[in-house]
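The following record pairs a protein chain with its ligand, flavin-adenine dinucleotide.
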Amino acid sequence: MLVDRLSRWLFLTAADSRLLKAAATRYGMRGPGSPAGRFIGGRDIPEAIESARALEQRGMTHTFNYLGEHVRTTDAAAEATMAYERVIDEVRAAGMECNLSIKLTQLGLELDPGLCEANLEQILDRAGASGCFVRVDMEHSALLEETLRITVAAHARHPDVGTVLQSMLRRTPDDLARLNEAGVPVRLVKGAYREEPDIAFPEKRDVDRAFIRLAETMLEDGAEPAFGTHDPRMIRAVNTAAAARGISAERYEFQMLYGVRRDLQAALGARGYGIRIYLPFGADWFPYFMRRLAERPANVLFVVRSLLHEQLGAHRP
Ligand SMILES: Cc1cc2nc3c(=O)[nH]c(=O)nc-3n(C[C@H](O)[C@H](O)[C@H](O)COP(=O)(O)OP(=O)(O)OC[C@H]3O[C@@H](n4cnc5c(N)ncnc54)[C@H](O)[C@@H]3O)c2cc1C
């Protein structure tokens, strides 16, 4: 338990480090066998589309995330906005369903909320014309209020906009009531960021209990409920709660991260549950990858094994 907490702390600290990010990005994802490659769906849009097609062939849907967060210049925010417009165009040209997951700090939320809103609006105009759903990811709690405000306002103009709530936060039942009232689709997750105990449950069992209670509310009152988890206990609880309310599996979906619990993704898909895979792509993979390591210490062993394999492989004749 102590080791788990320590490793979580370590990797979440690394996720925030600009120095490590710069070094890692230079090292890059050197091919499909690289450790980060397991969790990242490609370096660019064509590679992401190829990964999405492979998911579709296995009966799953997807949501594209162009990796990036906490941009420091308005140019970088504009670049991300244009990248998302290109994603919409290219995904549509490929004849695929279009569903995006976007972080507002990538669109400049920390520089200027007005600019961020304008960038989001630009993406939503393009998305609306293409029948593309846009989900606003939830980041650290310091950004929560502004993220909700922007998302609710955007949803009033564009119905195909949703967001994410985190069961680890004590305030989430109130936020869920607000979003349900406004008809905003919610993806429920446990929460991937480091938070203080006065606002977040420090114990995993409390986060899990809250997840189940919130899931029940979403099934009863939510628009297009989505559950972002790989936890078989949460999945069972959602299915049991839905069955008890006579809600069929087509009325909600599970969402999982690319490369995580692929066995579970396949097993649930085979049982007829809707599975949407969060498909991140692009060069800015380091913070996302560190959060995945923080979630599961066993992933670190996977990374070490991959690196050793790469090194040994490189020295073989
Ligand atoms: C589609 C999707 C979107 C998300 N969007 C957001 C968001 O917008 N904001 C946010 O704060 N968080 C987001 N998250 C992350 C989420 O908050 C959790 O940190 C993450 O999903 C791990 O929690 P869990 O529910 O899977 O259960 P846990 O209790 O953490 O894990 C349950 C089991 O799942 C497996 N598992 C979990 N994580 C991993 C991993 N990284 N690698 C390998 N196996 C793993 C393990 O078998 C583990 O025992 C998202 C998650 C998903 C699936």
